[in-house]
Amino acid sequence: MALSSSNPLDIVDMSPLLVAEHAAEQIARATNVDRHDVAIVLGSGWEGTTEDIGEVVADLLADDIEGFSAPAVAGHSGRIQSIRLPDGKHVLAIGARTHLYEGHGVRRVVHSVRTAAATGAKTLILTNGSGGVDASLPPGTPVLISDHINLTAESPLEGPTFVDLTDLYSQRLRDLARRAIPSIQEGIYVQFRGPHFETPAEVQMIKSFGARTVGMSTALEAIAAREAGIEVLGISLVTVPAAGIGADPLGHADVLDVGDSAKPALKQLLSKLFSEITEA
Length: 280
Known about the structure:
This protein is an alpha/beta fold.
């Protein structure tokens, strides 16, 4: 039974953790999988990249699960899949990201992460399509997130909840990723609120901060994952040069085009990565 006829995350006095637990129970019943070991949130340009990591044992519409919404942005499948890896472990692949700029509030933005934690996942891979702040990163380049700068002026933590973010993006998981793909680069990621792209002046500002990639997701989800005790790996796919870095106008269609072109390489990356993570 649903917690309410409207989205329960919109009810101020209802615990978002309770909603996540209820969503996890629905996923367990629908997939016949009691526990998921790893979760991945698929960002723009990453749709279809988990096709080769294992056997899809269940494929659900995300908005059939408590607290989830149909995607508002092209490039997100709107589905939640349970995938059995060759070693028998299970991956929860979430293709239904809610962005802060959609106006639903931070609880909805991080609900997928809290639900993943409630399904039992101890490892989370957050992916996104990003702008390249560093001109040496051409479109199609995957970049590990070593740290982030949150410029949304928001936090998913409520009340006096003090969480240490010093090592938010796991060094252990980044080392495993480099073992899988030795040439992969890493750097600082910046999240703006969106939905507009950044100005050239803003890009130059964050470049002076040491940023290499920029986007409109991920940081708030990573903070919620740390609160939940999940080990986090972040991967940005550079899909366009950030404003002022390249000469061409920016558009979401370019993000999707680069994602399609990069899909074979990303599928290979994830196949190797999941093998490393589950064997470690």
